[in-house]
Amino acid sequence: MFIINNSTFKIAFLSTYPPQKCGIATFTQDLIRELKKLPQITPVVIAVRDDYYKYDSDVIFSIPQQDRQSYTVIADKINLSDIDAVVIEHEYGIFGGDSGEYLLDFVNKLQKPLLTTLHTVLPKPEKIQQKILACLCEKSKKIIIMAENSRKLLQEIYGAVPEKIEKIHHGVPYFNFPSRETLKQEFGFESRTIISTFGLLSPSKGIDYGIDAIRQSTQKHPDILYLILGQTHPVIRKSYGESYRNLLKKLVRDYDLQNNVSFVNKYLTKQEIVRWLKLSDIYMTPYLGQEQAVSGTLAYATGCGRVIVSTPYPYAQEMLAEDRGLLAKFEDSMSLSNCINYIIEHPDEKKLMEEKTLLLGKDLRWQSVAQHYAKIFQTVCHTSNIIIKSELPDDTYIFRLTDDTGIFQHALNSVPDPSEGYTSDDNARAMIMAGWLFKTTRNDKYLELLVIYLRFLIYAQSNGWFRNFMDYSRRFIEEKGSEDCFGRCVWSLGFTASLNCLPADIRNTAAKLLQNTLPHYKSLSFIRAKAYSIVGLSLLHDPENFTIVNKLASELALAYDKYDEPDWHWFDTQITYCNAVLPAAMLHAYSVTTKDTYKSIGIKSLDFLLKKTFIDDIFHPVGCKGWLMKGQSPAIYDEQPVEACSTLLACVKAYKITHEPIYLQRAHSCYQWYLGKNIAGRSTIDTHSGGCIDGITSTGLNKNEGSESLIAWILAATIMTSGSN
What we know:
Radius of gyration: 29 Å
Strand content: 5-15%
Structural class: alpha/beta
Distance between the termini: 18 Å
Oligomer: single chain
Largest sheet: 7 strands, parallel
Number of helices: 27
């Protein structure tokens, strides 16, 4: 049975929550308020609290921050509830234990789909911080970032799978306030240049440098008024009282800036924040932290279309790109002052900056942000609600077809045929199959299979290339295998090296073999060899790999452009074998390069292939007895199981990128091809042996059950059974 649940999804947010005064709490409240307006999402809150609070009805459970047992107790309650998915709003300081490590107890106990929104991604984490975030990356179906700079860090430092990472802007509210001039009149600031900074005060905010910058700027522009908006951070106040605020006030007195600096010492409502920003001429963030991934205050200022002066922490660099503001040096009040003076003295450029910033700011409004989140929730919940059968497919035939050398290439009916020997092609595919089975079950018998197949590839590799055909006496009968064989081996090694569930020695061995292949990519000439290589290399978070991926993808893009016409969106003049790997490769390339051109080619070519291979929701792969030549009709027979699996994998990838249900539906139809929803109307699965027949011919079923067919079936069934994750 296949289910896509189109009903309302109940999403629980694990976060701090008002009335607790915390930026994460406010963020979560704003997001939930907007999600409530969408009919398909029902949001609820599990509040992590550092004190006793009286919550509103949004909060269904609460966890005392430092009560470790509560984290597993709440996870058990969620597992038994009607909650469809859980979102963790992650910041190191809001969960209990060292750097919030109690959160791992919750994550490891949770059985519901998990998403994580990251408010901080550290480039130089402590060991425990790296462990926590790496675990969240592994367990989460989606990892939501708010700035592009976090993507590379997550892949290189925390081992995040690229396709899991989704960028959604930090949301900002929209209020229809009067113009800046009207608001200035309301406050009596008509003749003043207003510069503002808001947020919970702490030494890391660098406000002392901001005050010194004002001192320097007022020498040329005495009408400046610098508004320091917000109360002291509760954690700072609890430990140090108001010592930082008092230091700032002393600076104002020492610099004789009482007429140029004003403090608004209160926890501001969102309406108050936006009102102050709307009357501001310049918003300033003189932060000291060079590693700050996201700033909610800067996002608010962007949403209001204000000109921003900031120190160059990563989020500021991203948001102020394309002349949307000015960047000053860290801990340099003169640099801040020079930026302020430039904006005041160039009103036309100031106006242009405001227009550019407001254009970006519209994408940050909560309405747009909430819709993006809702689409992600639907994707995760739809995928998690795929139900094929309660158990994995029968694995009996895998063990019959595998000996201590590797997996046999062919069989006579369901009996392995030693005369046909083994191939690296099939052992590479089998390694992917075994990896998926181990990832899904954690059963060591699949780990032992994977080692057999990996051992075969170790023996097959010679000077970084792979020999392919081996006879039954364990002798390779050729000096060098095909380019396609090379590409399939790269795919299997990249997949194996990327599986965090595997022991490190196995992953490192696969990575070593993959490293040996590096000299050969420049010589590849066949498009499928390039495509398989792209898929394998894109799975590992290595900048050198990504450079190769980009080069190979650009070559596939050139091939596509060469043959692309209004009625033919393909990479060649014919559609032959393992066709779906070509669009899949472009989508994998997009995942690691974020180049929209690759995504566009991947989707267009996949849509074209699906149009050619589906009739009334039944999968009709191009037959190998003639292929599909441009301008002609496709060959009907022989239909081979590998095509169904290849297309299924491409559709799953497309679904994860686009969140369009049609791709999930097509993936399911490819799965159903094995079970009888095909041109012959007959199942390709041998229920006695557990094998899969080698094809559908014009005269019926090819009753031989070789390894390629078996692997295609097991891989397709395992992916669909495990929810396509």
